[in-house]
Design goal:
23 helices, globular, 590 residues, CD2-Gal4
Length: 590
Amino acid sequence: MMTDVDMAAQTWRPQMRIACEECRRKRIRCDRGIPQCMSCATSGKTCVVRDNCPRRGPKKGYLKTLQNKIEDLQARLNEQEASTTETRTRSPSHEEINSDNDNGGSVDTIEVQSTSTSTPITLGDIQLWTPPLDVQFPIMQPAPWECIESSFPSPEFPSLDYSQEPAPFSMGVGLQITPMMHNDLDQLYFDRAYMFAPIVQAHRYRSWSKQPNKSMQQTCLQYAMWTFASSLSSQFQVAVRQLYKETKQLLHTIESEEPCHQVSIEQAQAWLLLAMYELTCEDYHRWMMSAGTAFRLIQMLRLYELDVNQSTPTTQAQDQYAAQLSPSAQVQDDWIEVETRRRTFWLAYTIDRFTSMIDGLHMFFDDRMIRTLLPAPEVNFASGRPKKTSFITDLVRDGDLERPDDDLSSFTETVIVAHICGLVLDHKQRPLARTRDTTVDFCHRHRYINALLTQRITMQRVHASVGHLDPVLTFTALASQICVLMLHDFIETKPLGNKAQATQLTKALHGEYQQQALDAVADIPHLVVALDQHFQTHPLTPILLLLGARFSQSHPGLNDASNQLMPCIISTLQACINLNRLSQNFLQLI
């Protein structure tokens, strides 16, 4: 029997506080700490607790309304079955009636032969379905790739209109990704998308990818990886749009946080991957906005000067001030983290160079400010073994033509070719020469870029001869040949002046590079055919095809090879029209 003391203790026992909103959103256990729970204190979130929680389940009267509609539907179904039975009863022929009367059978019973058994089944034996009044409808779980804001009721009753009915349940905002889908999307990224965007170390990513308490920046990066990977497959084409919307919404949520958040490398990587998806699958102008955001975040993180302390002695005095601002000193002990930052910068660098070739736009990153080493080989990055690499200017200048570097990854080759493309663009964007000295400088610069291209094409042929050709190296080889055409077109369409010496230099340069342009025109169709033989093609390949088509249009009838160039490019763009949005846009331009 309960005493008065026990009753008093039960009366004054404090009521346990309900879980906070942040723990409810994450679906984790809340320790109900005051004034802040441990989860919110760790993540730096504001711990908000509601005084009362909304009542779960459907609103009052909704199930009764649904039950009435089901009863009305059942009544209609009974009427329809009754009319059907009456029609079938009156339909037998006179011969069947006479036969039934002769055999003593009843006219009211019609035998229906079953297809699976030999036992006759009569209409009188068929029981109509009558659901009980207290039917409990299960919650319809949405497909994993759909937004979880699913609509009720069940699709078994499509004739009923529930547009005015309130939603019976709410599961929050987000995507329902099953563990199997999680593994498939991760594997899809590292199998198909990683070769074009190798900025995430697999082991480091898998260490936090399935943790429930990962940061919002890491979640954005994960969704961006899945978005870009889904665009390269047919299995998740239904999910890619929802993943894209969810990723962009999360990125905008991070930007709208107050106070101003700290920029993280995961945030910059997410914007970069999202920009690649928008460039190939969405709108070109939308890509410009996202790429600008990614480039600015990379600039804020100062990824272009990660290795400023390792510069050459001639530039060390100029970099003392920048070394104090560079954040790499704090992360040099984690080589994987530094290498991840290097690769993020170089991916943004290559995208900036290749996309600027479309309309000759001004390039974002300046080569004179770059103090970041080239990416390490893939084996070292995957295993976490540090390896010292070179600066891009040193590697381009000191390339060994006799012995190809086996450690040179396809990503590094893409960076080098992008650097040469940037030199070509900078060469075209400079003002035209007006004096003798500037004309001579122009010719020297033109010959220097052409020498770099010739060196790179020779090394690419050596790599191809030893069997190292893959989709990325095919893309870089095609880019090198397109740069040769751009240099030839620039000399032909941009005279150096009206003076006799300038005109003479122009003719000399034109004669030097005309044969190289003809060789490039002959090699490009073979490279385009090689692209079709690979399982995948680089997402930026349509840019190079557009530039090749422009050259073919501006030089009609150059030779027999140039006549075959345009049909080859058109057929390749048409074959990729459903895989890459750039192909569709560029076909309209051509």
